[in-house]
Amino acid sequence: MGSSRAKEQRAARRAKMEEIRRAEAARERRNRVITWTASAVIVVGVAGTGWYFVDRAERADRAREAAAAEPVAGEKTFEDLGRDHVATPVDYPMSPAVGGNHHQAWINCDGDVYDKEIGETNAVHSLEHGAVWVTYNDKAAEKDVAALKDRVSRTPYTLMSPYADQSSPIVLSAWGKQVSVDGADDPRVTAFLDKYVQGEQTPEPGAACTGGISA
């Protein structure tokens, strides 16, 4: 009798342990499913977010490329510009000059602001290095001159100087490119600088704007 009861108790314990193991196994399966599902959702979310940012960056790049391909409103383009080094004055067909034969020494153009007129053949050499030359005459308002001086002083590969013999108050010149504006707040100032400071028009991109001469 006692032996029979002991067998029944052992059988009941085994059944209970088996039930516990089955329940534990079921919990583990559920946890794995939840983990896999959550991981899949995260992966899909990350991938989707990544594609979103990649696509947005690509669209921004295309927009910048399209903007860069468009000329600045009212700009003039000059072609077939000589690039020989000369030691004599050059009679440039435009004022200020935007390119052509020039002095072998460039004038410093690392945000340099000059209060007196500078050597034009030296400035043209700076344009060859990818600088933008901002010039003004006595028609330019003092506040515009001050604003442009501040802007140029903070912009590498630029220089600024007075230039009496120009028809507009303010002129921006790059190698082969030029635009005239009346004031510093004209949006074409920013557009011209953004496009032509070390722009695609530069004959010698990356050439120095320091180590030259200073007026």
Helical/strand content category: alpha/beta
What Rg do the Cα atoms give?
36 Å
Largest sheet: 6 strands, mixed
The outline comes out as: rod-shaped
* Mean pLDDT over the full residue set: 85
Structure write-up:
The chain is of the alpha/beta class and 215 residues long. It has 2 domains: 1-70; 76-196, Glutaredoxin (3-Layer(aba) Sandwich), CATH 3.40.30. It contains 4 helices and 6 strands. The protein has a 6-stranded mixed sheet with strand order 1-6-5-3-4-2. It starts with a helix and ends in a 19-residue tail after the last helix. Keywords: Membrane, Transmembrane, Transmembrane helix. It comes from Streptomyces cadmiisoli. The chain crosses the membrane at residues 33-54. Pfam families: DUF3105. This is DUF3105 domain-containing protein.
Descriptive tags:
alpha/beta; six-stranded mixed beta sheet; 215 residues; DUF3105; rod-shaped; DUF3105 domain-containing protein; 2 domains; Glutaredoxin; transmembrane helix; transmembrane; 4 helices
Question: What is this structure, in a nutshell?
Answer:
InterPro entries: DUF3105 (IPR021454). This protein is an alpha/beta fold and 215 residues long.
What secondary-structure arrangement, pairings included, does this model have?
Layout: H1 2-69, E1 76-77, E2 110-113, H2 120-128, E3 132-136, H3 142-153, E4 158-162, E5 170-174, E6 177-181, H4 187-196
Parallel strand pairs: 2-4, 3-4
Antiparallel strand pairs: 1-6, 3-5, 5-6
